[in-house]
Amino acid sequence: MTSRLCRQSNQPHHWSPGSRREFLQATGFGFGALALQAMMHEELRGAESPTPGPHFAPKAKRVIWCFLEGGPSHLDLVDPKPLLNKLAGQPLPSSFQEPITAMGEKGAPLLAAPRTWKQHGESGLWASEWIPHIATCMDDIAVVRSCWTNGINHAGGVCQMNTCINVAGRPSLGSWVNYGLGSGNQNLPSFVVMCDNSRKPVNGPRNWGSGFMPATHQGVHIDGSSAEPIANLNWPEGYSSQRQRAKLDLLQQFNREHASMRPQQSELDARIESYELAFRMQARAPEAVELSGETAATRELYGLDQKETEAFGRNCLLARRLAERGVRFIQLYSGTGSGWDSHSAIEKNHSRLCKSMDKPVAGLIKDLKQRGLLDETLVIWGGEFGRTPMSEKSNGRDHNPTGFSIMMAGGGVKGGQTIGATDELGLYAIEDKMHVHDIHASILGLLGIDNMKLTYDHKGRPERPTINEGRFNKKLIGA
């Protein structure tokens, strides 16, 4: 510590500051520096802390989430409501309190769901004609019909379904899984995101961001539709691995010297780690994303031979290949850019999108099962909310955050069952309700993580993935 403390010659054992201000500056700033150093150490320690690991024996090792962005209609897919067709054209009965929705038309009449419903498999679960391929997998699927959320618009709904809260700033579920369990491989990202078109999902990369956690836990976007799914993956022509390694070593030396003076910036650690991962990926990732070795039967199973199913089918097949190689969390966007949003022309919109994702999702489930991977891979299907039974613009449906469905298969989930229920018109979840907090808690639980025990210290406060709420619905595993 530097100060102008002067020893008086006539009092050799007495110390006195040059001035009161200088004394306060010296001691105050000194202790302030110690505090700053401690905080920086804590931030760095958080970035380098060991993986917490599972709290109990996991049912699943990994997650593949087929995210139907925009909000699919549960009323037209997995939650049949005969009364809705009977009362079609009439106003919502007075016994129902009309929910607050994003853009709804007040007093709009009920809209029929003119579907053909059938029961499938030994379990007899219902599915409409819009998902004939998924319908063949119903004995492996649990349909949760009682979901609800706080997000009434797409920005809030997608944010909450990814981060457990409807405002930005928190880590995504994939980041929490990455932080809690660590990577299942050394040569590929642990958390991968793929979209089915060139549009960006609402909120963009924040959906797979790491929030207040180190940036090393964020997701990696892969363009499954590209001939080079991972940008800049291949070595430049004429480069050898030795030359690339030497170049990277020099760059890393500069980066580490720069980062050593800025330990509070976790983005620098993420950048350094990304270069190292990129070098390892140059040797291993090309094989992982190369589909030419897949058989014609496998390609047909995912719908790669049909224009309507090729894009999402390719992503689903890539997801299976990444899952085989230890990628922990994979999110596949269907209808990227709120494509499932059907305020009008729901028949045209949903029939097209269902055709694009139905066969690929069923192919993924069947392929995982025949390879012995489904038991340890949790496959999730669903969007940020559902659709209302009331009409909008005469032939569409508004957002419905108060009651909707998701499906889960594999990863320890007991298939062939429905969990929860909505009311007789499909407007509100009324039985065994599962908020997004409960959905995330259940996903984490299947991975062996107790959502209340997984913590990350942020500014002196222990943060949890479900914000101190949520419970693992053990009906998913038949308990």
Written description of the protein model:
It is a single chain. Helix content is 33%, strand content 17%. The protein is α/β, with parallel strands linked by helices. The chain has 3 domains: 5-43; 57-230 and 289-477, Alkaline Phosphatase, subunit A, CATH 3.40.720; 234-282. Strands 3, 6, 7, 8, 9, 10, 13, 14 and 17 form a 9-stranded mixed β-sheet that branches. A two-stranded antiparallel sheet has the order 1-2. It has a two-stranded antiparallel sheet with strand order 4-5. A hairpin with a 4-residue loop joins β4 (117-120) and β5 (125-128). It is globular.
How much strand? 15-25%
Q: Indicate the percent of residues in helices.
A: 25-40%
Number of helices: 11
CATH topology assignment of the largest domain? Alkaline Phosphatase, subunit A
Number of strands: 19
Order of helices and strands: EEHEHEEHEHHEEHHHHEHEEEEEEEEHEE
Uncertain runs: 1-17, 20-49
Mean pLDDT: 86
The overall number of domains is 3
Radius of gyration: 26 Å
* Major sheet attributes: 9 strands, mixed
